[in-house]
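Hi Y.,

Following your request, here is the sequence exactly as I used it, all 584 residues.
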Amino acid sequence: MEINRRTVVRGAAAMAAFGIAEGAAGTAFAGTSSPDSSSSTSTASSAYSLEFDSTAWSYDAANDVYYQLGKVYVANPATTDYENLSIYVPGAYLRATANSDGTTYTATVDPKGTVGAYSGRTAPIVIPVNTPGYAAQKPATSYSYSSVSQYLKAGHIYVWPGLRGRDGSTGTRSDAAPWGVTDLKAAVRFLRYNRSVLPGSTEDIVLFGMSGGGAQDTVAGASGDSPLYHPYLRTIGAAMADAHGRPLSDAVAGVMAWCPITSLHEANLSYEWNMGQFASTGTRASGTWTSAYSTDLAKAWPRYVNRLGLRDERGRHLKLTESAGGVHLAGSYYDHLIEVITTSLNDFLSDNTFPYTVTTMGGPPGSGQTGTSTTYETVDDYIAYLNTDSTWVTYDATTNTATVSGLEGFVRSQKTASKPVGAFDGYARGQTENGVFAMGLDAPAHFAPLTRDVVKANESTYATYSDWSSDYGSSAYDGDFAKKDSVGKDMAWRADAYNPLYYLSPAFGGYRRSQVARHWRIRTGIMQGDTANTTEINIRLALLNYGIRDVDFATVWAQGHTMAERTGDSTTNFISWVESVTGK
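Below is the corresponding structure, written out as tokens. Let me know if you'd prefer a different format.
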């Protein structure tokens, strides 16, 4: 079962080289030997110590919070501007005495101190991943209680690491993938290196993020202890073992991902199958080479998804099959997608009362465009609105349930394509994700072999169009794929590292060669044009097929690319979820 033979074979060989044995789903990571991590990071020639300074706490007496800012979390940072973290702790979890300087405190863990159901030893550690578009996450430079208050009041320990990203590169340093997740893993390892002097449970580390942040915490949650990251971690002096030489882990307990823009290796294909095949303007207008390209990408995606071997909760093998109209709009996978869409609509009808006001978002921030609001007096009015252009929803008032008949009507009504053809790996390397995988300084790069294969197979046809350029050909992809980064790794290695399915699906060489998070909560707005519905669906299915039992998933109707929730607010719901899944 192969997705890309070069990638899979190379990945499998890499795993064999590291001597990784196949692990069981849901294996506990605490104290687990991390592959190829038998030697601890040497600090003899290191610029920074990995030791946490327990004599340097600051204290917010008004809110009973101890905190430290700006602790560099690796021994040989590429940039201290990003690779430092802040930690915020409820006062109950520490015993502290004032130092002679009158401003700082020396503190030890108070295992009996409690906040709600948590103690100084059992409190979960939550880590935000706020990296939209895979951008860098700036570390805190000053203390603010308001930004962390809800988490601390709930008894969480809040750790805010700076992380490099695609927008952080300088004239001498590239911060492209996989450095963002590498830094995140290094921060997790730093916490475990110092667990004897820090409060909280390092077995209950939970990541949370939205969009590119949701993507990176999804990657980190799937790739715990993956050897693909070890060359990068060693380069920056991450903690690979504790002071006694015992291996450390970068696996986490939980992941909260809102609208994760991930699975970038196949995202061009799924975007055109899910949405692009129903569009006919812009780069999808008839007579353009990109219109033909859109169709070819859409045709390639069913072949890919059928090789994943996904199954639903009932054990049904999910596949796409040919259909009378459109591109493979039939089969058990198609039926499953329609079930997800139908469930989303019926959850909406169950959660809300009418009259109901729908507010559409305007343009991107700074565009000056404003959204619009429309109020629907009854459910029937709303269903009529959904069916404005074609009838694709039927409604039974006696049961307050709706039935969705097909994908095309839904997409045309609620999820139109907002990105051009080549939505992620752009044919001219102009998409955000081309910058995520930049090769060298300010050099956006192609990264998706599945896209390259489509271009290669159809290049002679595209060349007959007047808007085609030879610069868009497969040789441009091959050239980028052959280059190596500062650690000596090629694009196949880097793209695997940033593909959550590489670790979760038996179609890839990294399957069962990582420690996968035990708890997942995934939310996405169904209206977003930022990625296909299939992105989050496939992550959920792959987790369930892997054996992860706790996957809390919802596609939220009437919401777009946002921290989508069926009811309530995202922070409160996240805090409640953490309480439900962490040990106390």
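The two ends are 42 Å apart (CA to CA).

Thanks again,
Q.
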